[in-house]
Design a protein that fits this description.
Helices cover about 45% and strands about 15% of the residues. It is an alpha+beta fold and about 1250 residues long. The strands form 9 sheets. The chain has a 9-stranded mixed beta sheet, sandwiched between helices. Helix 25 links the parallel strand 32 and strand 33. The longest helix has about 40 residues. It is globular, with a radius of gyration of 38 Å. The two termini are about 75 Å apart. The relative contact order is 0.07. Keywords: ATP-binding, Magnesium, Membrane, Metal-binding, Nucleotide-binding, Translocase, Transmembrane, Transmembrane helix. It comes from Anaeramoeba flamelloides. It holds the Pfam family PhoLip_ATPase_C.
Length: about 1250
Amino acid sequence: MSHGDSEKSRDIIVPPPEFENSKDQPFCDNSVITSHYTLLNFLPKNLFEQFRRLANFYFLIIIILEYFPFSPLVPTFSLLPLLFVLGLTALREAFEDYQRHKSDREINNANARVFKDGEFRDTKWIDIQVGDIIKIQTHEFFPADIFLLSSSEPQSMCYIDTCNLDGETNLKVRQGLREIAEFDSELTLGELSAEMHTEKPNNNLDNFDGNFTVKGQEKLSLSNNQILLRGCALKNTKWIIGIVVFTGKDTKLVQNSKESPSKRSTIEIQLNPRLITIFGFLGAIGLIGAILGGMWQSNWSGKAWYMGDQVNDSNYLSGIWIGVFGFFSFLIVCNVMIPISLYVTLELVKLAQSYFLNWDVDMYHDDTDTPMKARTSNLTEDLGLIDYIFSDKTGTLTCNVMEFMKCTVGGISYGNGITEVAMAAAKRRGIKLKGPKKIKGQPAFQDDSFLKNLESHETSKLIHEFNLMMGICHTVIPEKDPEEPDNYDKIKYQAASPDEGALVDAARMFGYTFYDRTPTSINIEIQGESNEYELLNVLEFNSTRKRMSVIVKTPEGKIMLYCKGADNIIYERLVPNQEYADATLDQLEVFAAEGLRTLCFAYREVEEKEYLEWNHKFKEANTAIEDRKKKVMTVCEQMEKNLLLVGASAIEDKLQEGVPDAIEYLMKGGIKVWVLTGDKQETAINIGFACSLLTNDMTLAILAGNNEEDLDNSFSQAEDQLKENKEIGKPFAIVINGKSLRLALNKQNKRRFFNLGKDCAAVVCCRVSPLQKSEVVDLVRDFVEGSVTLAIGDGANDVSMIQAAHVGIGISGQEGMQAVMSSDYAIAQFRFLRKLLLVHGRWNYRRVTKLILYSFYKNMAFSFMQVLFGIYSSWSAQTLFPALLISVFNVFFTSLPILVMGIFDQDVSSKSEWIHPQLYSTDNRKGEFTLKRFWIWLIEGLYHSCVMFYIPFFIYRITPTRLDGIDDGFWVFSIIIYTSVVFVVNLKLAIETTFWTWMHHFTIWGSIAVWFLLIFIISTFNSLKGIATKTFSNPNCWLSLVIVNILALGPDVIFKYIRRNYFPQNFHVVQERERLGLEYKKKSKDGSSSDSSSSSTSSSDSDDVKLNDLNKKSGSDQETVSKVNTKPSTVMVNGKRSKRRGFAFSPDNGGSARITDPERATSQFRENALKLLGNKMSLLKNLKNLKKDELAKESDSSDTTESSDSSDTSDKSEKSKKSSSTSSSSDSGSSSD
């Protein structure tokens, strides 16, 4: 049995006692089971999971009803499609679970060496138990959570790879206790007798509390530094010996292996209510059929001579019972109204869409060899519905590759570099800055005075301490070059964070080279001279302390405390009234304004007596089992006080490539972007400007308050300013820090904070904790019904935010793979988000919605004819079609075309979507799958059903089916209608298809061909023998088919014609331009035409693309249609830049509009499209004229040269007008399209 869930702590005896029965062991075994099923429970458990789906359960009820005598259908034919769907899903589940079982067997039966009877013996992992002494060789994985006893390295050190556990690729060091390092051989291990007292099993990877007592010796404290976790691997160490602490499901790996929260797509959530409406409609049909059937029975009893004695028999069922049975009969014959194959088709389509995401080379990062990875296929359509993006900063918007750029020591600032953020800030103020040319391999820090002042200056001692602290106050592990171990310039540093690595590299650059460390010492070479510092204690960094310290004994015998951390934390612990404190604080503000990451450095000398007293308390706190972390932090506070400030470092984390363009285009697509970062306020603001999240025309409000009253005042001021901005159409943004955010997320302030944030163009939250990140996401999810959120991050502190959002994106960056392992989709760079959402997201959303709507349409069109037939069959629920044809309708004739459409359909090309983000905003804002649109498709299905039934019906009544006047029978009439259904529903899909491939042609026309093949095969059956020949040899069949298709699909064609030409949407305009080859043109610097389609991933190629550069003519007069610039640009063709936000038009020459707001962009976009597309003749005429003019100019390029200046273009246009009355406007023949 296992006490993992109930035990408060764990007592372990070493070596463990022997048990005759393994069930008597007090702890769980070491087996790990990841499979979901067994042979015994697979069938019931899998069926239970599948029948939780509403549609599957519905069809199960229908099949049960079909076994009753009143059923008009044979259950066999209805059972086959359901079994196919259930079987296909079960096979997939079984295959996946088989792979899990196979993996479990391999792991559980792997061998490890366990110490038994005086020697190490091979033992299967599954047989390892708590208390066993185990030996692990290099590159082997740890089979359980192990307490490190000894190792092959000095001081019982070892190196481990934790990549499988937390995703971090850098090696970590673990060290055994010096007091027990002697237990390193079979001889000494045979004499070991000890007890361990540890914490209970938990999922905390960063903490372990316990103590270890060898018989006859004092109690020793255990910490996370002595624990080797299952899933990690031994590296750079020959062997280790340890004691098993946790096994099986009690290990921290398994404790952390809980599945990510189950996420359902927005469409899937909306689907169930739609199904319920269909159930209601179906129930209404059954009720009507039951009532009318019962009434017919009552009224015609004894009168229907042609039905023989059935209804004339007084003992026959009454009208009421006929009605009851009729209700269920109509449910059965109309069951096809619910598309049984919908879920399977959706799964296949989403799976294919996920593979296309993975295969997209535009989202492949060549530098790191990292492709896009779809970790789930459930949410592909949600990528086209995103309303809010919540983004981390470090490693997400920035590279997380740190470079030491500046510092301040003794109140003097050093470093001449210019950051990207500083250049962006200068640009906003109209100042042009040119940063120093960076030579590859040259350090970012450039300032000769720093080393000069180190040699001779009043602050030289402080500079020495600053360099020394960068070299020894860390947890970095040096890796020497095996070929040149004495060449310290080739040492590679394994750092827990990029910041630490950058600081140690900076120290080496200044001549303070850290080259070796042991558990008790740190070795550093200072200006060519080796120095050893005795390492007494390490006070580790965590998110609560926001600082780390080391206590060392210098070569001179002094005990020194060196501390580095966040500025606000360090300043709270300084000696009052320090000489350089104010100057350093001012310089920190400058560094923050330049977007640099800062850390303050301070130190103090500790008296030996004080240290000994403190160290005793520190050891006591470290041996505590309960509240150890809290007790340790309390003791650390007693040492980290009365510090002397040395200075601060400033590290640059450069923006990732393409981030500003990506954010700009995402915001144009109507998506709100919130940045949640742990950085200082000034740093966050300047990064916001550098990445185009914040702009000069925005009003920026700072929400700050240490109490409710201050925050209330900030809210009031921001709300008043927002109201003013709304009136003048000026964008608004807010910035809030961690303290204020904590108050803003209180129950009484939540709604107010959200109401303010939802109307902002951008929101920046700084000094935010990981928990607050998820709370902000939950805030939006709770208060915006129907909103779809996306969270993107790269580190472990982003996991809660990623899991809280509807869609989680993990970036595989420098902080390990924790975010990726918790995400739904993984990308290597933030800029890939642009294509993921604006292109793939929009495509997938439109495909999935069209698939669902079409599935319900075709089934409604097919099944409602059973109701119409009931009118003429005494509401008897007799079937219109043979049972076999009812069952195969969805499988043979309509499944493949919609599957291909759902995978490949695209209304516009990826290049057009790349440069026109308004398509995402205006066409896709959840309008494709509203209840109204759902019923429009269903009503169209009802209309088509009426046409397909009544046209053959009336032709059949007024015209005999054979020349001799003899009726061919009911089944000929049935086959005519069925043929009409196959044609209409497939041609309807052809009309809705906007992107044709050979697979579209093959599946649509192939499905129609399969119908003819199948009906001729069925014609060989006795009951329908010769039916195909009888049907298709009669002219009335083909007459019906022609009339049905014209009446059914004609309105579709007319509607699309009117909509496209008189009420066009944005994508209609883009489609026309693509068709005539007018898209993807830009103007080069010399004014010549160039094609930007060759580089769809380069934002520069789309800078000057105009969506509408078309002119409409009426007689001799010309009305110029203004061009809409879909990306803000400093180049304004035929227009002037507006000094304030909005549009600038030049009505005489065809003005250009500069758009900075998505809603206004969409409005102007639509307005211009409406002007342009007044009627089809005007549209086609002007488009063709444009094309002709363009070709003419290209052919006449040797005689005519274009000027890049808009005024020159206008002059040429005027001259052209004088020479020809048919010439178009000044830009119609230019390449500015």
